[in-house]
Amino acid sequence: MFAALYIFAACSKKNSPDVLPPDTDPPTEVDTPKCLLSEINYQYQPNMPYFRDPVTLTYDSLNRITQRQGINTYILYSYENGKVIHRMYLNSITDANLTERYIYTLDNNGRIVFHTRNEYSSDHTSEEDYIRQDSIDYQYDAEGHLIGQKWYELGLFLTKETKSTYQNGNMIRRENIYYEYASDPLVRKGADTLTYTYDNSAWFPEAYYLYEVGDDVRDIRTGKPNMNNVVSIHCKMFKDTTIYYDFYKSIDYKYTVKDEKLEKVTMTATTTNGYNINTTFGFEYKCD
Fold it and tell me: What percentage of the chain carries pLDDT values higher than 70?
């Protein structure tokens, strides 16, 4: 449960029972395909508050994600002892097109406990030639659920804090708290409050890619997943007085399963500006 990467295995090998009735031949083992999520197809609808590009995922021989490709973006993952490094490129994978680098530090359970984010200008000369570095701390409960994150701009100033509450193995509430930049003492500007309702079906790992379900690190898992699947989210969003955005106000999800794999999710939603959204996310797999 605490693996840094939650690999999307949709099928598993079935083993024969340890004890068989008398005069019964052991059943022949049959290898069923092992499937990895290979594509997430987000469908754009007018007036969506924000949109994600369709992406394709590539894995190494250990079934770890090594590349995530969008329309104009490429994210590469590399793995070191106790660390995962995430590099983002714009338009093509060249040194000159590197825009961000994240370095995730893992604990002994494979959970992310800290990460730094470096941002680059177009004329940077090396990976150490970044224009700013931010960081996030992670906090877990005794069961391994991610319950808190603290966001530090320039690695120094606490500007955002996320707190999550769990019940019966599911995150039922998340609060995103925003602070004045570099204020001393700390001044709270406002907060988002998101509340979640679940069905009784076993958690689909792919659901981590849905809007407002996973945290901000979607390809690298941060702690124990939910027990069940989100069917509705109520969002009470903080509106900054200086910048106004349209946000999701409510989100409902309906899951479609085919051959024991999540085939698509239908999302209906409303926004704070009064728009109605009806879209689908499709999931495709590569099976050996």
Answer: 86
Angle at 8 between CA 4 and CA 13, to 5 degrees: 115
CA 136/CA 161 separation, integer angstroms: 9
114 alpha-carbon distance from chain centroid: 16
Instruction: Please determine, for residue 27, whether its predicted confidence score (pLDDT) is greater than 50.
Output: no
In this predicted model, what pLDDT tens digit does every residue of 248-280 receive, in sequence order? Answer: 999 999 999 999 999 999 999 999 999 999 999
For 39-64, what is the mean pLDDT? 94
Closest CA to 238 of 161, 140, 185: 161
Closest C-alpha to 69, from 100, 30, 38: 38
Given a contact cutoff of 8 angstroms between Cβ atoms, the answer to whether 106 and 112 are in contact is yes
Name the least confident of 41-50, 83-92, 182-191, 208-217: 208-217
Alpha-carbon span 188 to 182, nearest angstrom: 11
Cβ distance 149 to 162 under 8 Å?
Answer: yes
Assigned token pair, 19: 């004890």
* Mean pLDDT for the stretch of residues 8-32: 40
- CA nearest neighbour of 180 among 149, 158, 155, 151: 158
Between CA 11 and CA 108 the distance in angstroms is: 28
Which two three-digit tokens encode residue 286? 């590569």
Q: Please report, for residues 35, 72, 108, 223, 228, the alpha-carbon distance to residue 198 in angstroms, rounded to integers and kept in the order given.
A: 26, 34, 31, 19, 6
Written as one letter, the residue type at 164 is S
Asked if 36 and 65 touch (Cβ cutoff 8 Å), the reply is no
How many CA atoms, within 13 angstroms, populate the side-chain half-sphere of residue 124?
A: 20
Q: In 10 A of CB 236, how many CB atoms?
A: 13
pLDDT score at 7? 39
